[in-house]
Amino acid sequence: MALVPCQVLRVAILLSYCSILCNYKAIEMPSHQTYGGSWKFLTFIDLVIQAVFFGICVLTDLSSLLTRGSGNQEQERQLRKLISLRDWMLAVLAFPVGVFVVAVFWIIYAYDREMIYPKLLDNFIPGWLNHGMHTTVLPFILIEMRTSHHAYPSRSSGLAAICTFSVGYILWQRTTFLKKTADPFNRRPRRLLRSGCQ
């Protein structure tokens, strides 16, 4: 049975995300040495989400190729669970977080580059890696949405899940802020925040 082009495309996207993650983690940046490391940046969390999502897509494709025509009810039930996990992850994490990261990064970058991606980072992160982290996410996820049918969760469960993720990320940012003198995006000293100046 031949692979469909969208299945090959998913493998290529997964490999590109793995390459971007490996190259990013290999960079020696001062922020990687502080509490939370790369995990304090939503961009890195989004890359992990995208890699896991496309990994689930590839696993779903492989499972459907292996179970097609077998007639095994248990395998088909497991495949349906995997497909529903893939669809849930797209609707709740991969698409909303991916679009948010791309849109917010490039809007703030256009407004004031130093606010989100100082020129100093050019010494650590090559341009192709910056685009791999902040640009390719959107076309890859749009291609996935266009080439495959997805069943989306109910609006209430989807909103509850993305709100849970958002609150978790905010709490994580607060934790990293309390462990050092300034959070990764707002470089104001703690004493200003204690005094009530926001």
UniProtKB/TrEMBL annotation:
Q: Which InterPro entries match?
A: ADTRP_AIG1 (IPR006838)
What is this entry's stated membrane topology? Multi-pass membrane protein
Q: Which Pfam families match?
A: Far-17a_AIG1
Please write the reaction equations for the catalytic activity of this protein.
12-hexadecanoyloxy-octadecanoate + H2O = 12-hydroxyoctadecanoate + hexadecanoate + H(+); 12-(9Z-hexadecenoyloxy)-octadecanoate + H2O = 12-hydroxyoctadecanoate + (9Z)-hexadecenoate + H(+); 13-(9Z-octadecenoyloxy)-octadecanoate + H2O = 13-hydroxy-octadecanoate + (9Z)-octadecenoate + H(+); 9-(9Z-octadecenoyloxy)-octadecanoate + H2O = 9-hydroxy-octadecanoate + (9Z)-octadecenoate + H(+)
Give TM regions: 42-67, 88-111, 152-172
Q: What are the record keywords, sorted?
A: Membrane, Transmembrane, Transmembrane helix
Q: Which GO terms describe its cellular component?
A: endomembrane system; membrane
Compartments reported by the entry:
Endomembrane system
Q: Which family does it belong to?
A: Belongs to the AIG1 family.
Record protein name field = Androgen-induced gene 1 protein isoform X16
Supply the source organism for this entry.
Ursus maritimus (Polar bear)
Protein's gene: AIG1
